[in-house]
Amino acid sequence: MAAALGVGLPIGEPSGNMIIDIGGGTTDVAVISLHGVVYSKAVRVGGDKMDEAIVNYIKNKTKILIGDRTAELIKREIGSAFKVGAGDKSMDIKGRDLVSGIPKTVTIHEEEIREAIHEPVMVIINAIKVGLENTPPELASDIVDRGIVLAGGGALLRGLDVLLKHETDLPVVVADEPLLAVVNGVGKVLDDLDILRRVALA
User: Fold this and answer.
1) How far apart are alpha carbons 151 and 198 in whole angstroms?
2) Residue 137 pLDDT > 60, yes or no?
3) Residue 22 shares a structural domain with residue 60
4) String of b and e for 10-20 (b: at least 16 CB within 10 Å)?
5) 10 Å Cβ neighbour count for 186?
6) 63-84 pLDDT tens trace
7) What would the pLDDT profile of 88-114 be if each residue is shown by its tens digit?
């Protein structure tokens, strides 16, 4: 609800709004209407699971061990859920050689990272599909018109919106400031406690 408020969705209208908040530890899927949550589900997959998948992929493929911070940097720099544009980005990464124990530099490519994070990305996509299946028909038609809004740090993963469009045939919008969606929403509630009362009563 806070994320929906933060991105400016018209939560008080009698129409359906779908918001996906992809955080570090969890992804929250919700359909909101008339200040109430009509459907919600959280899956324990988010940015952290993607980082973990990158660490494991690189360890298995190159026998190089990297840390979580390096994995997050890789995700931000060359990570993608769907191939967008021409070319294949790459970057050099430093880690510890598991065979010799000596620090080593290897080059990894965008396509490899896409393969590495495919499983956690698909868990998120499937959670969204389940949410759409469980949305009441009259609200589902609103989502067809309005689309799905992505918020949270995971919304910044390149190509995720394109993949979700491809998988659902629905419009997908990334919030203007996805990282600040929840904070901005809480701020709006603190500025106007009437919103909190309406949400609490719904």
Assistant:
1) 23
2) yes
3) no
4) ebeeebbbbbb
5) 16
6) 999 999 999 999 999 999 999 8
7) 899 999 999 999 999 999 999 999 999
Can you read off the two tokens belonging to residue 144? 């067809």
Task: Yes or no: say if 114 and 12 are a contact pair by the CB < 8 Å rule.
Answer: no
Q: Are 64 and 112 in contact (CB under 8 A)?
A: no
Q: Is residue 126 part of a domain?
A: no
Verify that 55 and 108 share a domain, yes or no. Answer: yes
DSSP-based three-state secondary structure for 199: helix
CA distance 195 to 99: 58
Cα gap 157→161, rounded to integer Å: 8
DSSP state of 98: T
Among 59, 85, 116, the domain-final residue is: 116
Q: Which of 87, 116, 145 marks a domain boundary?
A: 116
Asked if residue 125 belongs to a domain, the reply is no
